[in-house]
Structures are given as C-alpha cells and as structure tokens.
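Below is how a single chain appears once it has passed through the pipeline. First comes the sequence as given, then the structure the pipeline wrote out for it. We keep one example in the README because the format questions we get most often are answered faster by looking than by reading.
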Amino acid sequence: MVSDGSGSSVYDVRLSSVVPAMVTGEDKVHALTNMDLAVKLHYLKGVYFFSKEAVDGLAILALKNPMFEWLQLYYPTSGRIRRSESGRPMVKCNDSGVRIVEGQCDKSLDELLAMEEHDLYNSLTYDQVLGPDLSFSPLVFIQVGLSWAHVLGDFVSASDFINTWGSHSAGQALPRSLDAFPSSPKPKFRHNFSQRPTALKMTQPVGDHWLLPRSNKMGTHHFHVALDQLRSLLSARSGPHAPSQQFPLISAILWKTLAKIRGESEPKIVTVCTDNSGERRNGEILKNGMVISSVEAGTGVAEADVSDLAELIAEKTVSENAAIEELVGQDDGKSDFIVYGANLTFVNLEEVKLFGLELKGHKPIWASYSVDGIGDEGAFLVLPAREGDGGRTVTAMLPENELAWLRRELRDQWGIA
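Resulting structure:
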C-alpha cells in the first residue's frame, strides 16, 4: 500500500510495528553474504487474495498476536542495516520490528483482479526502499502479503517466512530455532571462474539510499498459461531437442517473442535464476540461494526455433554464483549492483510454495510475486498457478512501451493472455 492519497483504491492506511517476543540480545549481528549484497537494490512484493470466508471474524489483533513468537524465530527481519568499520553492510539485530500495514479498500476482489498489474501492486504492497537513513528503514512490511528487502533472502525465504506465520496463526508450533546464518550455496551446475559475470551489472553509487536510478518507466503484467495449453505447446514441439519441461519452454517463447519486438537489439545473452531450495540444509532460512546462470544464443533469437532456445535454457546455462560472489567481495561489498534486468532475466519459481499461506484453513484464491528495482532489460517470473490448476502464472516486468506489444504477440502467436 503506497499511500492513502487521492485516486488510490486503498485509503485510511495505518502503520504499526511488531517486534520479537523476547529481546534478541546485545550486539547480535546478521552478517550479509556477497550474494545478499548482489541483490540489495531489489525488493520482492507478494500479493495474496483470500475469499470472504477466510477472513470473516478475523480482527487485526488475531493476525498480530502470533507474530511476536514468529519474529523471535526470524529475528533478523526485525533488525536494521548498519555498516561495519570497513563500510560493509550488515543487519543489526536490534528488535526494531517489522511494519504492519492496515487499510481500507473500495474495490471488490473481482475489480482488483481486473486492474492493470502495476496499479495493483502499487495499491496493495508498500512502496519499500531502504534508506536514505538505513538505520531507521524496516526490512519487511506485512499486509497479508509482504514487501521484502531481497538482501534478507530470496523468494523461497520470503514465501516460507509468510507461510510460517500462517501456520503458527493456526496453532502449529514453531521450530525451536532455524539456521539464520547459512553458508554460501554450492550449486551443482557448470561454472565459469575465468570471466566477469554477465548476470551482474554495476550501477552508479547509491550510497545509503538503496534505490536503482532509472530512466525507463517499468510496467508489470501477469499471463496465465493453463495446463492444457502447456501440454499442447509441449506436444507441438517434436524432434531431438523437443522440450520436456515447462519452464524452459515458457522462457524460450518469451525470449523469442521479445527478440522479435526489439529487432536489432534483440537479447542474445539471458540470465536464468533457478530455485536451489533442494540444496538447503534442514532449517536453513534467510538465504539468497538461487543459482544465477547465463546462456548465450549463437544465432539470431527472433528466427530461432523455440525448441533450440528451450534446450539452451534447460541444458547449456553456466552458473555465475562464484564469479558474482568474487566480484561483489572485491571491495568488501560496498559497490552497488543489480541482477534482475541486467540481462533479460528468467526466474524459475515453479517449486516455490506460493499457496502455502493459509487463513482459517483457506488457501489464497490468487497469489503472485513481482520485483522492484528491475533493470531496463526486464525480467520474467514463472510461478505456479492457483492450487489444482497445474498451469503457470508468468509475471512480466518490462519497460512499459514493450508490454502492450508483448501482450499482443503472445495472444496472437501463442494463445497466451
């Protein structure tokens, strides 16, 4: 929720704070890894829609009361950014709390779902940026959904965080403790240490105001790809390189379509981010553990066969995690970078527990995520569709002047809307 100003669908916005149930302890610090600092200019935004039955009779105190013990488990989320003597950012676990956002809305669920997505996220998620006074900037805003500083952890961390609150609200016991200080991921992917990472782009210095300077206005749109559509698309691709997985095929279609739109400036190198939650140790949280890879097309993308592009995404990506960590660490994490949108970026979130948040035993009727702080090359998130659907929801984040063209091309050429 951005504001209660004129023209907003959300009004009477109120902010409050919730802190951990017990004092964390003096001088407790959550160290930030180089991978954390690589994504510090990005912010994750989750939106969850529930039916009337899920919230009937729920007062705000019933939502807040379970948070105290929950935040004791996730105590770094209640901290604030500080800098060490060398200037490297870290989280001071000082129990300053997370922000709770309450508000009224003058639209029904159907009306909200019919809104343009950029307006939807602006209305229903808080416009979070860390700084310019880092020591007073909350890392998390919660509004039955969340605005989450990516420096804390990736999509898996964020969704598990909000899902754990839901289960605790339903009376389930919390784990005694979780590992909030994970080691760096060790992805089982091919890697390249010899070259500068293409998936990482250095920005101009932003100091203590962690906001990406930009010239293009970015827009957001959701596409729904039904299970029957996916089966039809997969069966239509034949030959030795026919794709068998959904994410590579969807990404290949988007890559080819956007290459056609961009013409001579078509993207030859793309970034592929893959959920690495299967490699996490039991209880490991607050981790930027995604595998960040790149792949390059050797020929023109707009004229390439979709099956060939899907094969590149599925089998030819090269992990750049080690190179990213090395580059970010060269000046002890003081430089500023972006990952999403440094190249055209595809993010595989098919296994994220998007519908794991429950209220009174009800799952969301719709849920999705987007990212703030996207670079001009744009990004796509591939997420599970609603429970039982079997399809996929694609969040497209691109310069606004490309979105209308993309929507028309996907509808006319692929039947995706």
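The mean pLDDT is 88.

See the next section for the split statistics.
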